[in-house]
């Protein structure tokens, strides 16, 4: 396995996706440094797991305050490394602080259960930490996602090794410098590096639980490593989330929802709308409105760039292949000249089920549309594919909404809104989109394992 080669000579040079300027270079952790980080986290485990949950929660609250104090610095690095506007980045950072506070409150309430056994005996279950948690977080909402995993892992008594995405290592390093000193030595450690460092961590037998938010390919590799090590794995990976637009909806409203779902954060959200099935009754008006909204974004240059040119090449290749295969470009779809990694909001009509842009994750500002003759046809098409993260249905028909909720094989079904939901919501993705709860109170269960105790009445003799 290449991950066991020493990556000490590997450096990560990051370019600003807005103009291609060099942000800086960060050295990857060496093999020795990775092993030392695991050793330090294991050494800190016993004391940390014995720390009162309320005390662990109090430290998480302090961590939330520290994140808020450095919000602007984190947001500026987020902009420089990923292109996300400062205002949006600060929104993600505020969500991160709120999530840390949420787990600070939930952690002390996490408990086992009394079990009904023989009369006179005592039977109960205990939730225990796994030990060392290796957390792999993405670049598209780097602080908020990291805070959720870090908070749930720490408050349940695990120590943490956090590997942020190699696409935003400066941001990951700063977050580690903010959070690490809040906790005792070895409890919260940041490990920087690319795929080689990730492989070292995932394959290390000192890791008890691995949480990964990122690509399906990386998640699959991590799962294969865990088969050997025995680590518990939590994954939220890629998606190809469908949007089903039913007959009877207002086409303008539906187009506004589609534009939000497909173009927010330049389409770089795990639950972005990535394929659209629109009923023929409203298709023409819907497509006209959606193209107009994309055109306005492009004319006003309101779209942030993609994270880098490597992702832009993937997005452009899918769009070009669709057009060559007969899709009709209503807006966008061309790589703009100049520096950076910009790509326009793009609307494609006349797409077919086998086009890559309708099958594989795009992760860019592309809205591929296929017209269907009935709600049944749209529902059947939306239910296809190897991913199972989320789906949205826009419909005035209660029965259709209920059918979508019952029949779509995904972790989250959204009715009449592409984004939103209760703050404690937690779903289990399906298929190649991952496994395990990634958010909410249930994430505390993912970071603990259950021990059952049977305490008999007799004393022997």
Automatic annotation (TrEMBL):
GO terms for molecular function: oxidoreductase activity, acting on the aldehyde or oxo group of donors, NAD or NADP as acceptor. Residues 4-453 form the Aldehyde dehydrogenase domain. It holds the Pfam family Aldedh. PANTHER family: ALDEHYDE DEHYDROGENASE-RELATED (PTHR11699). It comes from the Bacteria. This is Aldehyde dehydrogenase family protein. The keyword RNA-binding does not apply. Coiled coil: none annotated. The lineage of its organism: Bacteria, Bacillati, Actinomycetota, Actinomycetes, Propionibacteriales. Keywords: Oxidoreductase.
């Amino acid at each position: 396995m290449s991950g066991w080669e020493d990556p000490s000579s590997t450096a990560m040079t990051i370019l600003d996706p807005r103009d291609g300027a060099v942000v800086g270079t960060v050295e990857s952790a060496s093999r020795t440094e990775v092993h030392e980080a695991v050793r330090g986290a294991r050494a800190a485990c016993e004391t940390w797991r014995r720390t009162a949950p309320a005390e662990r929660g109090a430290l998480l609250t302090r961590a939330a305050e520290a994140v808020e104090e450095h919000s602007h610095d984190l947001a500026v690095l987020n902009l420089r490394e990923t292109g996300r506007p400062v205002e949006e980045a600060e929104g993600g950072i505020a969500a991160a602080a709120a999530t840390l506070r949420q787990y600070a409150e939930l952690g002390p309430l996490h408990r086992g259960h009394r079990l009904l056994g023989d009369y006179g005996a005592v039977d109960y279950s205990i939730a225990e930490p796994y030990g060392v948690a290796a957390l792999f977080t993405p670049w598209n909402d780097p602080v908020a996602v990291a805070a959720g995993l870090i908070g749930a892992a720490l408050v349940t008594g695990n120590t943490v090794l956090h590997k942020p995405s190699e696409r935003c290592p400066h941001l990951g390093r700063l977050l580690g410098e903010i959070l690490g000193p809040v906790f005792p030595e070895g409890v919260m450690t940041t490990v920087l590096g690319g795929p080689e460092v990730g492989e070292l961590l995932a394959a290390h037998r000192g890791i008890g639980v691995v949480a990964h938010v990122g690509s399906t390919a990386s998640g699959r590799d991590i799962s294969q490593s865990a088969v050997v090590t025995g680590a518990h794995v939590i994954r939220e990976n890629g998606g190809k989330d469908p949007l089903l637009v039913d007959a009877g909806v207002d086409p303008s409203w539906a187009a506004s929802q589609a534009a939000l779902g497909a173009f927010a954060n330049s389409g770089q959200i795990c639950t972005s709308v990535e394929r659209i099935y629109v009923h023929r009754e409203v298709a023409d008006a819907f497509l006209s409105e959606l193209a107009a909204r994309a055109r306005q974004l492009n004319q006003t240059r309101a779209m942030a760039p993609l994270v880098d040119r490597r992702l832009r090449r993937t997005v452009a290749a899918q769009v070009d292949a669709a057009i060559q295969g007969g899709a009709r470009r209503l807006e966008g779809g061309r790589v703009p000249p100049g520096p950076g990694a910009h790509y326009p909001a793009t609307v494609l009509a006349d797409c077919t089920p086998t086009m890559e842009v309708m099958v594989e994750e795009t992760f860019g500002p592309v809205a591929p549309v296929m017209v269907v003759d009935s709600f049944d046809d749209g529902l059947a098409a939306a239910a296809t594919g190897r991913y199972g993260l989320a789906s949205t249905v826009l419909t005035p028909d209660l029965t259709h909404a209920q059918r979508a909720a019952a029949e779509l094989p995904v972790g989250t079904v959204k009715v009449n809104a592409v984004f939103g939901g209760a703050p404690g919501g937690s779903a289990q993705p399906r298929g190649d989109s991952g496994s395990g709860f990634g958010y909410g109170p249930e994430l505390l269960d993912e970071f603990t394992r259950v021990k059952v105790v049977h305490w008999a009445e007799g004393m022997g003799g």
